TrEMBL record:
<dbReference type="GO" id="GO:0005886">
    <property type="term" value="C:plasma membrane"/>
</dbReference>
<feature type="domain" description="ABC transporter">
    <location>
        <begin position="266"/>
        <end position="481"/>
    </location>
</feature>
<keyword id="KW-1003">Cell membrane</keyword>
<dbReference type="InterPro" id="IPR027417">
    <property type="entry name" value="P-loop_NTPase"/>
</dbReference>
<keyword id="KW-0067">ATP-binding</keyword>
<dbReference type="GO" id="GO:0005524">
    <property type="term" value="F:ATP binding"/>
</dbReference>
<keyword id="KW-0813">Transport</keyword>
<protein>
    <submittedName>
        <fullName>Peptide/nickel transport system ATP-binding protein</fullName>
    </submittedName>
</protein>
<dbReference type="InterPro" id="IPR050388">
    <property type="entry name" value="ABC_Ni/Peptide_Import"/>
</dbReference>
<dbReference type="InterPro" id="IPR003593">
    <property type="entry name" value="AAA+_ATPase"/>
</dbReference>
<dbReference type="InterPro" id="IPR025662">
    <property type="entry name" value="Sigma_54_int_dom_ATP-bd_1"/>
</dbReference>
<dbReference type="GO" id="GO:0016887">
    <property type="term" value="F:ATP hydrolysis activity"/>
</dbReference>
<feature type="domain" description="ABC transporter">
    <location>
        <begin position="4"/>
        <end position="245"/>
    </location>
</feature>
<dbReference type="InterPro" id="IPR017871">
    <property type="entry name" value="ABC_transporter-like_CS"/>
</dbReference>
<dbReference type="Pfam" id="PF00005">
    <property type="entry name" value="ABC_tran"/>
</dbReference>
<comment type="similarity">
    <text>Belongs to the ABC transporter superfamily.</text>
</comment>
<keyword id="KW-0547">Nucleotide-binding</keyword>
Length: 482
């Protein structure tokens, strides 16, 4: 007997169909992966299955969970099942974590209130969950003290704390390095076991292949292909699926030649940084020139984002100095955030926020339309608030906002972690083209080594100084790609 069955699920926004009829079945012990590009309707499908669609959107169809038959158009029917029968790991960890609670307390709350464990046992289980995810030292931290990858792992532990047999994981590994991605995949598969159900919503090809099971490929709200994951990856039947697989950064052509070294827009000398009692990195010296793409890689939590924030002057260094090209306005140094939800005013439309930037920088309003087209975004998104825009679309809108400021330096913190391979390639090309044509110094941070290898002019492999396995790694110099 299936754990979950969905029949003819549709999602509409007024007269506009966002998700065409989709049917699926989730069996015990066999994961189901929903793969597709940004904005294809993957998250809408997950929300319809949970009864959590945003206001204004209407679902139709039938969802059967165990012996209960539910109307997807009546979300109140689902609430009694949340956490106990079906749980969701949201795409944005910042939205699922309480900013006023420490990590261990958030996880213990699920064990206690949903699973029904005594408080002391709930705290012990929460500590064990954090340890399994490599976060034993993060138990007392608040969400704002966690890196994006660390926050995602805390959200995973909180989602599985209630003991629900069915877990819907929406982009569970975005922003994580390959090792952490595989750890999370193993954790979710182990939690599923032989009797649980696991539905993965993702654009991450490596994750989809690692999870295996059954696969559904979505495009523009419609199913274009389905079958066993390994069979589809080995011999995709549709041209769109073939294009999606071919856009993997592993298949990109490497950068032809390094950009000529010009005037350094930003530099650091012997830079060291600590958070609390933990040293993130030591003695980092670098120069990023105009027109150069400078790549930074490293495992989740090693200080990649903190390095960029230190260069921008947001975080003071423990030791060392940062030099910025004199004569440039502070607005010339910009950050493209890893979590765009936290960077947009939630109660204003996207268009209102972008027009603020146009007025502030005295830009041409037509630049908005030009950049929308270049980023593959529809103009009607400007009328929406951030909560009504997909994570991938919001990330591209973040890039649009940064480019409107005509920056001299951009710190791009995992700028494509929410994008499918096709859109990722397009956005990286736009970003690198702008770097070359406008003479922007770009610091590109990513856990994806293939993306950095095939994009950057120079690379800094950042590793924690306390990691004995990588004690000999080079942390001070940028290695120019040959």
């Amino acid at each position: 007997m299936s754990l979950l069955q969905a029949d003819d699920i549709t999602v509409r926004d007024g007269t506009t169909t966002l998700l065409a009829p989709v049917s699926l079945r989730l069996d015990p012990g066999e994961p189901l992966v929903v793969l597709g590009e940004t904005g294809s309707g993957k998250s809408l499908l997950a929300q319809a299955l949970m009864g959590t669609l945003p206001l204004g959107l209407e679902a139709k169809g039938q969802v059967t969970i165990g012996a209960q038959v539910l109307n997807s158009g009546a979300p109140d029917q689902f609430r009694g099942l949340w956490g106990r029968e079906i749980s969701v790991l949201p795409q944005e960890p910042w939205l699922s974590l309480d900013p006023l609670m420490r990590a261990q307390a958030q996880i213990a709350e699920g064990h206690c209130l949903v699973r029904g464990l005594p408080p002391r046992e709930a705290r012990i289980r929460a500590a064990s969950d954090l340890s399994e995810l490599g976060l034993a030292d993060a138990a007392a931290r608040y969400p704002h003290e966690l890196s994006g990858g660390m926050a995602q792992r805390v959200a995973i532990a909180a989602a599985r704390a209630g003991g629900a047999r069915i877990v819907i994981a929406d982009e569970p590994t975005k922003g994580l390095d390959a090792a952490r991605r595989d750890e999370v995949a193993n954790l979710l598969l182990n939690e599923m076991g032989q009797s649980g159900g696991l539905l993965i919503i993702t654009h991450d090809l490596a994750l989809a292949e690692r999870i295996g099971g059954q696969l559904i490929v979505l495009r523009a709200g419609e199913v274009v292909e389905r079958g066993a994951t390994r069979a589809v990856f080995a011999a995709p039947g549709q041209s769109y699926t073939r294009d999606l697989l071919a856009a993997n950064p592993e298949n990109w052509t490497g950068k032809a030649a390094a950009a000529p070294a010009g005037t350094a827009v930003i530099s650091s000398r012997n830079l060291s940084l600590a958070r609390g009692r933990r040293t993130l990195f030591r003695d980092v010296s670098l120069d990023i020139a105009a027109g150069q793409v400078f790549g930074v890689t490293g495992p989740s939590g090693c200080g990649k984002s903190s390095l960029g924030d230190t260069l921008l002057g947001v975080i003071p260094p423990l030791q060392g100095q940062v030099q910025r090209q004199p004569g440039l306005h502070p607005f010339a140094f910009q950050k493209l955030y890893q979590d765009p939800v936290a960077a947009f005013p939630p109660r204003r439309t996207i268009g209102e926020t972008l027009m603020d930037v146009v007025k502030m920088t005295r830009s041409d309003p037509r630049d908005v339309d030009r950049l929308l087209d270049g980023l593959g975004l529809q103009p009607d998104l400007l009328a929406r608030r951030p909560g009504a825009v997909s994570g991938g679309e919001l990330q591209r809108l973040s890039l649009l906002r940064v480019l409107l400021r005509r920056p001299a330096f951009i710190f791009a913190d995992e700028p494509t972690s929410r994008l499918d391979p096709i859109t990722q390639a397009r956005v990286i090309k736009l970003l690198t083209n702008a770097t070359e044509s406008d003479g922007i110094a770009l610091m590109l941070v990513s856990h994806d080594q293939a993306l950095i290898r095939n994009t950057a002019d120079a690379v800094l492999p950042l590793t924690p100084p306390c990691d004995p396995a990588r004690a000999a790694a080079k942390k001070r110099v940028a290695i120019a790609l040959q």
